[in-house]
């Protein structure tokens, strides 16, 4: 790894991390051969690049699945090959659901399947208010004792919910139980992507039986009457047992705060010992209140060593194949989150800021992908390398490369 431009001893300071989820992409014909980062007007991110450094990191090591659970652990300085146990356990932490030593958590999406194809992994971005009675109906019909354990369906945010398998001894699942994220199979036949391995019969049975539970539910009837997509079934995936993570304050000596509308990312922060800060109007979608996230992040700086703001919108735009919406999301992140942080941080004394997606989500595939993502760091003690902008092409020319993404955090803080 080349010299990053760090100089001398750095006293205690304030740190900010901004995560434009899934923003790393490829050149788009619809954007004149530019990536969304290149096409968007992002003067604040570009300022970080010009006054600091741009590099790239690999946050998803093979053989783990490219997704925010694995990638966020890397970005926060933890080796996912060592600590990762599954996506759902991270979300249960954010929801305040405890897991016993033999319990398993499983992600439970409300989805729309039509003609055997995954038409919409969000069930038309169903609201939390609509999703709750649907999950409660599933719990009433399918929850309770089964296979030496007990099933608990817990409503979450929008289409994102949790199934917990409570067990007094070994559950039917294992490390080689395989499930498929529904957002990675848009408009594909689901038959080839159903769970396999230990315990898969139970998961497949629950998914199948949920169709009858939801088919004539009043919530779905109302959605169809309004021209919206119904939640036709649950999709179970991302299973795992409770992870053991060393507190961030112990590992890195910093007190953190996490701002995100996504339970997964909030859950990682909670497990690290960071304070969870909920922002009114934060939806985890394109309509999120970017300005509110910026205000709450700035307000959190005085009481925390590190403040992390995660924004799901660019990732959602990629999943929907909307290049223009991805550009708009990046521009709003730049103006209403990165800009206010850049203005506020110097007032706190010494400071640094890191901007980086967790993983790649190309518009071409509408799915998460392996590969390097660009990052930019600026602030106290960071010498400029003269890079003109923050984007994938500038990062590819940089000699600052982290093949193990979790090593970036140590450099950022030190």
Give an overview in words.
A hairpin with a 2-residue loop joins strand 5 and strand 6. The protein is an alpha/beta fold and 414 residues long. It contains 15 helices and 14 strands. It is globular. The strands form two sheets. An eight-stranded mixed β-sheet has the order 10-9-11-1-12-13-2-14, sandwiched between helices. Strands 3, 4, 5, 6, 7 and 8 form a six-stranded antiparallel β-sheet that branches. About 1% of the residues have low confidence.
Rg over CA atoms, rounded to whole Å, is: 21 Å
Contiguous helical run count? 15
Largest sheet: 8 strands, mixed
Give the total of beta strands: 14
In short:
The chain is of the alpha/beta class and 414 residues long. The chain contains 15 helices and 14 strands.
